[in-house]
């Protein structure tokens, strides 16, 4: 049941999270990490462009709220399309190169977008970010169904999107398409030799990643009621990458765990200890050097070990 | 446009360019020899500046700091290489980038923990505090000094790489690391020394730059970005290319500041992307047998 895991995750958040606002943030970044995971975990592409797609989604939604006065669903749709379009364009250039040069190309594009925020101040608002959104509502074609004014409603919208994205990506990664992406991750030359058009597959992975990251960015704009300039900065890319790797690359549930761990750490430690990111960096190093499966891999290993222990006991 | 302003910006670009070169050349040497992508390279630049801050704060002059700080940072780098980084050489580039990114965050947080998040600046030495007339431009002595010192170091570095046994080993190692092991070179010591040299040069650049641009813990990220641009535009592993690219990047930035401050950085990254897309066959060849 591909739906069980994300539904349980969201329900757990609804019950245990200290606030709806934290729960919504966790879910929104979990969606972004899902998008990152498709590229990094399944296709083996380390991209610094994840923040671009998230930021483009956020700014696209924000601009449509400010200038066209649309309601939340239309804004999210625009964010999704914008994320996919930018991902396809940037991705089509980046995949022309491989290995370090691919990473450096994504780095160059990410930096370009980051500085462009300040170059086009009258569009993006520069350092102030994009402000002055109308009140957020759910509805379409002139009729309004629901005010997005409480944390619970916002969380519900983000959760539904998360479950939908998780379900879609589960189907995708378990399909022949997903298997091909993993073949590219394991050995691209071999995949080419077998006859797969790997460029096309990588480009499609980018597009889907853009769809998912774009909608996450759109949700972020709806949730905040503004778009900070940081949404398009490298720090957002790094944050999403860290969540994905920490949670476990190549496992969709890992993306949720990564977002959960990152934001819970930040929520509980940041108010009392400014330098809590040292812990994060240490965890990241540990994952890269020792624990490749990330949190999810560790959890699964621990679970398997304890099940074996209990079995031995009962017998 | 005011020609005096342009001339003074062009001079600034020259100084900045040489500083970029001193920073980026270490990145490219380490990549060429060890096939190691170090996204924590910007940390050495920042550590150098903070070492100088600490030294001058204890009453030493900037001259002493300029001489001592690079060696302190080189020593730290040599230890880090021995204890931690050596384990990363065998990793895939993707993992190297993630691991060194984590290191960069760690260093940035430690620097903030020790010295605070605020930016600081160092005063130029008393003897270099005045200005001098360069044609129509009144220009600070300190910036002239930076250009002269950095240019002298560039020449020295060239001699070191092209005219000494160490340089020969380094260049040979960049071509075929397995081969120089067979020839009896202690490749691990060569790695350590190269890494320390790279870190020391970046640290020196950091000290030199601080009186001109100020310094903060987050500067490392920006500097790393510029180093990556310079290395890519110049061609990975190329000394001359790195020098030309560093000067070009700094000039583009300096001149663009006159018109639109953010434009310079955008142009620089567009340049980087174009180079990667256009001439990476040269770069790829270097990589394939590294």
TrEMBL record, chain B:
Membrane-topology descriptor: Multi-pass membrane protein
A single GO BP: amino acid transport
GO molecular function: transmembrane transporter activity
Pfam families, sorted: BPD_transp_2
Principal subcellular localization: membrane
InterPro entries for this protein: ABC_transp_permease, BCAA_transport_permease
Protein origin, superkingdom: Bacteria
A GO CC term assigned to this protein in UniProt: plasma membrane
Ranges annotated as spanning the membrane: 18-40, 60-85, 97-121, 141-161, 181-204, 224-249, 256-278
Subcellular location: Cell membrane
Keywords: Amino-acid transport, Cell membrane, Membrane, Transmembrane, Transmembrane helix, Transport
Similarity comment: Belongs to the binding-protein-dependent transport system permease family. LivHM subfamily.
Record protein name field: Branched-chain amino acid ABC transporter permease
């Amino acid at each position: 049941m591909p739906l069980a895991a994300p539904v349980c995750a969201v329900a757990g958040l609804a019950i245990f999270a200290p606030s709806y606002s934290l729960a919504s943030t966790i879910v929104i970044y979990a969606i972004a990490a899902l998008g990152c995971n498709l590229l990094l975990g399944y296709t083996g592409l380390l991209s610094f462009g994840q923040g671009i797609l998230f930021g483009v989604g956020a700014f696209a939604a924000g601009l449509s709220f400010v200038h066209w006065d649309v309601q939340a669903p239309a804004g999210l749709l625009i964010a999704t399309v914008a994320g996919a379009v930018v991902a396809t364009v940037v991705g089509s250039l980046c995949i022309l190169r491989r290995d370090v040069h691919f990473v450096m190309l994504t780095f160059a594009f990410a930096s370009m977008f980051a500085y462009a925020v300040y170059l086009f101040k009258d569009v993006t608002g520069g350092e102030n970010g994009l402000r002055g959104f109308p009140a957020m509502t759910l509805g379409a074609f002139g009729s309004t169904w629901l005010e997005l004014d409480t944390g619970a409603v916002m969380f519900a919208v983000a959760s539904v999107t998360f479950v939908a994205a998780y379900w879609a990506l589960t189907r995708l990664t378990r399909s022949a398409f997903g298997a091909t992406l993993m073949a590219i991750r394991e050995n691209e030359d071999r995949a080419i030799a077998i006859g797969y058009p790997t460029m096309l597959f990588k480009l499609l992975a980018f597009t889907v990643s853009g769809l998912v990251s774009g909608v996450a960015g759109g949700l972020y704009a709806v949730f905040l009621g503004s778009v900070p300039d940081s949404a398009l900065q490298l720090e957002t890319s790094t944050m999403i990458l860290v969540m994905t790797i920490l949670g476990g690359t190549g496992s969709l549930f890992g993306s949720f765990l990564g977002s959960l761990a990152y934001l819970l750490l930040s929520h509980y430690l940041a108010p009392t200890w400014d330098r809590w990111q040292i812990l994060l960096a240490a965890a990241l190093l540990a994952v890269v050097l020792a624990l490749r499966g990330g949190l999810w891999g560790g959890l699964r290993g621990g679970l398997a070990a304890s099940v074996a222990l209990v079995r031995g006991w009962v017998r | 446009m005011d020609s005096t302003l342009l001339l003074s910006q062009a001079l600034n670009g020259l100084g900045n360019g040489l500083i970029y070169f001193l920073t980026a050349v270490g990145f490219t040497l380490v990549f060429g020899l060890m096939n190691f992508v170090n996204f924590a390279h910007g940390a050495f630049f920042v550590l150098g500046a903070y070492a100088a801050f600490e030294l001058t704060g204890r009453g030493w002059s900037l001259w002493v700091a300029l001489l001592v700080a690079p060696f302190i940072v080189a020593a730290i780098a040599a230890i880090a290489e021995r204890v931690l980084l050596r384990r990363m050489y065998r990793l895939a580039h993707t993992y190297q980038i993630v691991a060194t990114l984590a290191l960069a965050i760690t260093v940035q947080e430690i620097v903030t923990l020790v010295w605070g998040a605020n930016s600081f600046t160092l005063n130029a030495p008393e003897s270099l505090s005045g200005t001098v007339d360069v044609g129509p431009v009144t220009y600070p002595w300190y910036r002239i000094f930076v250009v002269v010192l950095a240019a002298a170091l560039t020449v020295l570095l060239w001699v070191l790489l092209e005219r000494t046994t160490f340089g020969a080993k380094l260049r040979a190692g960049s071509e075929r690391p397995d081969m120089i092991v067979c020839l009896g070179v202690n490749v691990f010591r060569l790695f350590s020394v190269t890494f320390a040299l790279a870190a020391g040069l970046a640290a020196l650049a950091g000290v030199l730059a601080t009186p001109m641009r100020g310094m903060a813990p987050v500067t490392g990220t920006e500097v790393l970005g510029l180093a990556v641009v310079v290395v890519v535009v110049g061609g990975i592993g190329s000394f001359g290319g790195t020098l030309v690219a560093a000067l070009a990047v700094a000039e583009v930035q300096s001149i663009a500041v006159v018109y639109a401050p953010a434009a310079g950085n955008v142009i620089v990254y567009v340049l980087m992307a174009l180079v990667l897309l256009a001439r990476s066959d040269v770069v790829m060849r270097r990589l394939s047998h590294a």
